[in-house]
Amino acid sequence: MIAYYRPATLAEALAIRAERDVAILAGGTDIYPARTARLGWGDPAHKDILDISAIRGLDRIEETDTAFRFGCLATWTALAEAPLPPLFDGYRRAAREIGGCQIQNRGTLSGNICTASPAGDGIPNLLALDAQVELTSQSGARTVAMAAFIQGYRQTVCRSDEIVTALVVPKLAGARGAFLKLGARKYLVISIAMVAGVVAVDEANRIIHARIAVGACSAVPQRLPALEAALIGVALEDEPRGVAAVHFTALTPIDDIRASAEYRQAAALALTRDLLCGLIATPERRAA
User: Fold this and answer.
1) Domains: count for the chain
2) 182 contact partners, CB below 8 Å, separation of at least 6
3) pLDDT, tens only, 98-141
4) Fewer Cβ within 10 Å of end Cβ, the chain: N or C?
């Protein structure tokens, strides 16, 4: 018999988390399909459920002097509708493309990273945003860089007594983000390859800050530091010309039913060039 816990406070949730081996349920868009898949293969086992969806305040999106904080119950729909600066344009685009409306209304931003899927649409965006993950236990809270949070396929640094309580994104003046994904169709599809980027430019329209991250092309989505370094000082209108295959050698794509490794590698390069071309346009032109 599976036990089901639905505490009303974070303190209660943390006490249960510390005492029992539980699966945390927030939006439920991954935990239920995962269980169904296991049942289909004859595995009826399932951990007890810790449902944190009744805890008030964990769904807030808040701005401080230095950062934006997304509570662990903030949904994709909340992200898409929030009045956020251009820095979040890529993350907001991912919010509009992940699943259908039902998934966007229920699925949480934090849940997307906790599943640690190579094809999680939020992960490359959070890498490009240089996000921090807030983990809380009864002994207190700690923050971990998004780049260090995922250790491998479906593996994170979250301890058995911790709950991810927020995502924190530092502000970056004058920056804007972008996101592109490639799938077998436009919507309701797992990515074959995807890329997220954030760039900031000076008054001469030269790049002074660049972060580029690729997903679905390695066991763990990753940034491209060599490409980021090559873009610094380049005029924004010239940046797509500097993207070369050598910048993608750290990727380790696989062959699967959706695409070959070779295709994924080429797609990552093409998507990155397209993403940078899109950033050249002014906000007015991009909205047209």
Assistant:
1) 2
2) 191, 192, 193, 194, 267, 271
3) 989 999 999 999 999 999 999 999 999 999 999 999 999 999 99
4) N
